[in-house]
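Researcher: We're teaching a course module on how sequence relates to structure. For the next exercise, students receive a sequence and then see the predicted structure as tokens, so they can try to spot secondary structure elements on their own. Here is the exercise chain.
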Amino acid sequence: MLSPKSLARSAVAIALGFAVAGPASATVFSGTVYYTLYSGGQNVWRIGYTYNDATQSFGLGSPTNITSTNGADGIIFAPNGNLLIGGQGSGNVYEVNPASGALVHLQHTSTDSYHLALDPSGNAVYTSTFMGALQTLSMPIGSGVVTTGISGDEGGITQVAFGNGGSVFYVNGNPNGGGNVGTINLGTGVTSRLYAGVAPAHGLIYDPFTSLMTMFGAGRTGTMSAADGSGLLTSGAVFGVGDFDQGAVDGFGHALVAGSNAITFIDYHLSHDITNPDYTVSVGGFGAIDDLAPLTGPGSNPNPTPEPGILAMLGLGLGGLFTLRRRTSA
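Model: And here is the predicted structure for the students to work with:
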């Protein structure tokens, strides 16, 4: 019997109908995305989503407010399951219980805090102001921060992200795009620029589906090698919005992106290229939306709770598989 955690981790994508209807099948994806607003009182939220990749049908549930912090921008999960929020001009990083909304800890930094990145070890969180020094926060939050000046090809950075083989990349774009991209030594702050003035260079993450570094900014996407940053590709303005800030990928060839007061959904599971997607749709009504928490990898929810629809659909799928097995064995 699979535990709820196992169901959530291994069955976010559920094949429906294959066992009972032969080749005619659909894959339904469902989950919860956590996001911040850059202005307004209630600024930390979550919302459920579903996507059918056969019918290309994307849906969002009703937003649920979690809490209000004094400024909100970057949002990730800590290894203990709490949310970490970059507090913009407050100069704080907040640790918040995602269920109760209660403030658990905070860490003051010497500069503003915007995008956040969790070290793969789970022992540190990295943040900075736009084009600023690197702030390294020890875990748990509240146990200290180290400021590292930026040198080499850049005088400041906006975000770091982790690639393959120990590679660490940076972007230094102001809101929201047009930044430089390169590699960084986290211990010394020395940067080596790979590209200058890249349109989507603002948000930066690793995508396990493509094994590429993926960028979001200026209403566009970009990719490059997660080993050495080679092979830069950038999209045209194909998404129908003028601004992207940060995105989250699910590991199955889909991304949700915040920007332009909307959540944009991108399906690239067939093309395997987020700069040349199979399907996109933007859903408005998210005034001042800023960043999304990761859906996979470091900084994603370590204890995802399956949506009721996931459990129901999984039951249908497993029931069909068991029926097929009995018929095959008879």
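Model: If you want an answer key for the exercise: The radius of gyration is 20 Å. Confidence is low (pLDDT under 50) at residues 1-25, 307-330.
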